[in-house]
Amino acid sequence: MKIVDLEPGDPRLDSDLLPVLLELRPHLTSELFREVQERGRAQGLRFTAAYADDDTCVGAAGWRIIDNTSSIRKLYVDDLVTAADIRSTGVGHALLAHLEDHARQAGCRELNLDSGTHRTGAHRFYLRERLDIVAFHFSKELKPQESEKP
Question: What's the predicted TM-score (pTM) here?
Answer without folding.
Answer: 0.91
